[in-house]
UniProtKB/TrEMBL annotation:
InterPro entries: Lambda_DNA-bd_dom_sf (IPR010982)
Organism of this sequence: Caulobacter hibisci
Molecular function GO terms recorded: DNA binding
Name used for this protein in its record: DNA-binding protein
Keywords: DNA-binding
Length: 103
């Protein structure tokens, strides 16, 4: 288990999907400053935020939580919040694809 937030891992996964930290923050309903604090390991993520991160990156909630340095205990999330996170992540990914096509 990772003991600290792994920003390099997150940035690499985002890049693989053509996304960036700003897209991740929007999908998770976080400000850029809040996301920056999480990436610096100065703010713990909520279970719903972990679910969004996992969906955006195409990994399990457990892996997203572990790479965030908070362990699998943060992975469980209620079904409604999980579904909302999935939908928000999909919309954000689609918006990123549309933006890339416009360039």
């Amino acid at each position: 288990m990772t003991l600290f937030f792994d920003p390099g891992w997150y940035d690499a996964r985002l890049a693989e999907r053509g996304l960036d930290r700003a897209a991740l923050a929007v999908a998770a309903g976080m400000s850029a400053d809040a996301l920056d604090l999480a990436f610096k390991d100065q703010r713990e993520l909520s279970p719903a935020e972990v679910a969004v991160f996992a969906e955006m990156l195409g990994v399990s909630r457990e892996e997203a939580a572990q790479r965030a340095g908070i362990g699998a205990h943060a992975a469980p999330v209620d079904p409604v919040a999980r579904r909302m996170a999935q939908l928000e992540a999909r919309v954000t990914a689609l918006e990123a694809e549309v933006a890339a096509l416009r360039r």
